[in-house]
C-alpha cells in the first residue's frame, strides 16, 4: 500500500511539472480563488509561453474582470497572459460581501491569494505584473503596501490612491475643462451647465449623492468630449461577446456590485494612501488621461511624485478620458510592452 501511495504521489508531481512547463501561447483557463468566505474566479487568456502574467484589477468597486478584455488590454494577449480577476463582490464571485470585515486590506489579501494559486498552477518562476484601473488603483496600492515582493512591476491607469481628496480635486478640474471647451466652441451649452452644477456642489459640500452626481457628470462629459473629437474614438476595440453576455445575464452580478459598493462607501471620505506610497519600491508606471473627470490627473502626478521606486515612468495621454487603454489603445499597448520588457 505504501508503494502504491508513493507511486500515485510521483504521478501527481510529474503531471503538475508537465502542466507548469507546458504553457501555451494561446492560453485559456479559469481558476477559482477560495479565501475567507469568498470564491473569486480569474479568467486567463493570452500567451503563456514566456511566463509573463498581468493581473488586472478592475474598477468599481463592483466592476467585472472581463470588462477589461477590450482595447489595448486585449491586444496584449498576443505577447502575455492576462489575468482578469473578479474581485470579492464583482462579476461571478460568490460569498460574503457585506459587513465591517470587508475592507481594502481584505481584498488585497484576496489578490495575494490569487498570486499563490497562479504560482501553484503555472510555477514559481512567473513574471507577475499588477495593473489597477480606477478603484483598482487604490486596491493595487493596498496590495503592494501589504506585499510587493511577488511582482516585477506596478501599472496604475487612472487609479485612485486618495479618494478622500477626490471630491475637492474634481471641483477644481471640471471648471478647467469646461472653460477650455467653451473657448474652443465645443458643446458650449453643455459645459455652461457643467459649471453651474459645479458651483452648486461647491456650496453644498460632499455628500454621497453629490459624489454620485459628479461621477455621472464625468461619464456624460466624456461622451461630449468624444463627440467633439477631443477624445480618441476607440476604433478597433474588440470584446469577447460570449463572456460579456454570460456575465450580464446573471442578476447576481448587479446585486453583488451594489452590495460591495455600499459596504465600501466609506472609502470616498476616509482613504488616502499618499503618505504610504513611498513604501512602493518596485518598478512603476503611472498612466493617465488628460481629460479624466472621474479621477483627475493631479492624482496621477501625486502618485508618481510619492511612489518610492527609483525606476518609475509617467505616461500622459493627451486624447484620453478615464480609460486610456481604450481611448488611445495603441499607445497604451506600446507603453505597456516597453515597460514589461524592461522589467520582467
The multimeric state of the shown protein is single chain
Query: What coarse outline follows from CA principal-axis ratios?
Result: globular
Number of domains as seen in the coordinates = 1
> Stretches where pLDDT falls below 50 for ≥5 residues?
1-19, 238-251
Number of strands: 9
Mean pLDDT: 88
**Number of H- or I-type helical stretches:** 13
CATH architecture designation: 3-Layer(aba) Sandwich
Query: What is the structural class?
Result: alpha/beta
- What is the third-level CATH name, the topology? Rossmann fold
CATH superfamily: Alpha/Beta hydrolase fold, catalytic domain
Give the percentage of residues in beta strands. 15-25%
Radius of gyration over alpha carbons?
21 Å
- Biggest β-sheet strands, sense, barrel: 9 strands, mixed
Helix content: 40-55%
Order of H and E elements:
HEEEHEEHEHEHHHHHHEHEHH
